[in-house]
Recover the amino acids of this structure.
């Protein structure tokens, strides 16, 4: 089994959960958010272009992750799977988790807008679900992401019975030109019906111009 990875970024702090983390970012995403800073994650089939990509087996990835084992354990950190949409490669993530040290914290940054079959394989692997809600208003959601909110709703209903609230971290963005304070308040109330946790509200701001391939930092094993 192979993971289609666009970035492995080591020794991160304060951006992907508690402690020192390694971010493993995957290609592909079912959403097409208007302000996506990783838009090149969609260039799945375009191997000839300048989008670097890496293929790793679960064992190869765990070997890289082990380099920072001591930092994870000292800080309560671990591995964060992001993207793109990491759950599209949940079978691979599950294989990585089987080989990971049980003391590492395993997190996933997801829109949760995937069919349930992609969520199921990692149900017992994830210590923290960082869920980017976008907006609970169906029309705003569709306008901003280009897709329906239905999978997200379906997955929240299922997760409610299967995952403890202490593992859930909701993120709700203020999206310029798409939602307003009233919409954000409605989204907060909406997610609390599933899990009674205080969501993180944040602003989408354009902070950097990211060019194709420039995300690759520490490890890059070319596919071609
Ligand atoms: S969910 Fe994330 S990766 Fe996917 S299109 Fe939206 S911002 Fe981009």
């Amino acid at each position: 089994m192979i993971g289609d990875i666009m970035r492995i970024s080591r020794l991160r702090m304060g951006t992907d959960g508690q402690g020192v983390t390694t971010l493993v970012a995957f290609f592909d995403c079912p959403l097409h958010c208007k302000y996506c800073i990783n838009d090149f994650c969609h260039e799945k089939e375009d191997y000839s272009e300048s989008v670097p990509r890496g293929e790793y087996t679960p064992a190869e990835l765990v070997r890289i992750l082990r380099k920072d084992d001591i930092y994870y354990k000292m800080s309560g950190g671990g591995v964060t799977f992001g993207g793109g949409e990491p759950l599209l490669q949940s079978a691979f993530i599950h294989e990585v988790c089987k080989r990971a040290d049980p003391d590492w914290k395993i997190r996933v940054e997801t829109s949760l807008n995937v069919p349930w079959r992609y969520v199921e394989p990692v149900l017992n692997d994830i210590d923290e679900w960082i869920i980017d809600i976008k907006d609970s208003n169906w029309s705003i959601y569709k306008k901003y992401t280009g897709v329906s909110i239905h999978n997200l709703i379906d997955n929240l209903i299922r997760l409610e019975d299967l995952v403890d609230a202490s593992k859930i971290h909701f993120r709700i963005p203020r999206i310029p030109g798409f939602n307003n304070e009233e919409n954000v308040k409605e989204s907060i109330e909406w997610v609390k019906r599933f899990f009674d946790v205080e969501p993180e509200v944040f602003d989408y701001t354009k902070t950097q111009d990211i060019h194709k391939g420039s995300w690759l930092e520490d490890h890059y094993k070319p596919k071609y």
Summary: The chain has seven helices and eight strands. Helices lie at 58-66, 69-75, 90-99, 116-119, 138-145, 150-162, 181-192.
